[in-house]
Design brief:
The complex is a heterodimer. Chain A contains 3 helices and 4 strands. By secondary structure, chain A is α/β, with parallel strands linked by helices. Chain A has a 4-stranded mixed beta sheet. The two termini of chain A are 22 Å apart. Chain B has a 5-stranded antiparallel beta sheet with strand order 1-2-3-5-4, with helices on one face. In chain B, 35% of the residues are buried. Classes of the chains: A alpha/beta, B alpha+beta. The interface between A and B is medium-sized, with 25 and 28 residues.
Chain lengths: 98, 135
């Protein structure tokens, strides 16, 4: 998985490319831990994300909990496979998907 | 039938995924079904690595069988770890709010929902888990 980020003041955009699963979720977790401080708007761009497993959901849930306290988090560009995972697991109600 | 035996570690998940995908692609498996199968592999192998071999290490054998009419795949995961039946886990409450949510049980729940069949048995000292998916 490749992570690219763009920071604009307190707005942070993180784009993921590849698979967010058991082997790659720690990468995103580390990146967020490192850069989420002081961010008020977190944008996750999933347009190049192929799929997500529960290990990836765990990281998204943790990020959502942090952002609920300090601002907003939105997820963009979700494909059909990822959307289905969000629907099955009820994450559609937890996350803001644009 | 094709078989792969490999150390049951999370680092080996990509190798197993590639091994299975190669055969799915050779049989014209649609991309969506392939991704659902890839997710299932991630969930099941990480369970084996974390739980069946929680206090040690060992191997896992992955067997891939393609069936015609209906075109489908049967994937069998066999390990020698402690008996671990992931299907016993209660389904998670997917309606809880963000603060009440935890991630336990979500993985196997996703597998149950996205595959056409999931079966577990403990046989001859081995965990045997089978998933089937129609193309």
């Amino acid at each position: 998985m490749t992570i690219s980020k763009k920071q604009n003041g307190t707005e942070l955009e993180i784009a993921l490319e590849g698979r967010l699963d058991t082997t790659t979720a720690p990468q995103l977790e580390g990146e967020l831990k490192h850069s989420i401080d002081g961010v008020t708007d977190l944008i996750m761009d999933f347009s190049a994300l192929e799929y997500i497993s529960s290990a990836g959901l765990r990281v998204l849930l943790a990020a959502q909990k942090v952002m609920n306290k300090q601002g907003n988090m939105v997820i963009r560009g979700v494909n059909e496979t990822v959307m289905e995972v969000f629907e099955i697991t009820g994450f559609v109600d937890i996350l803001t998907i644009e | 039938m094709n078989e792969l035996t490999i150390d049951a570690t999370v680092e080996n998940i990509p190798t197993v995924t590639d091994f299975v995908d190669e055969q799915l692609e050779a049989h014209g498996c649609p991309m969506k079904a392939q991704m659902q199968i890839d997710i299932a592999i991630d969930e099941l192998l990480s369970n084996i690595a974390y739980y069946a071999y929680s206090s040690g290490s060992g191997t896992v054998t992955i067997r891939v069988e393609i069936a015609e009419e209906p075109l489908s795949v049967l994937i069998t995961f066999i390990d020698n770890g402690v008996p671990y039946d992931p299907l016993k886990k209660e389904d998670p409450d997917t309606t809880l709010s963000v603060d009440q949510r935890d991630i336990g049980g979500l993985g196997i729940y996703m597998v149950k929902k996205s595959m056409d069949g999931v079966e577990y048995e403990y046989k001859d000292g081995q965990n045997v888990l089978k998933i089937t998916k129609k193309f």
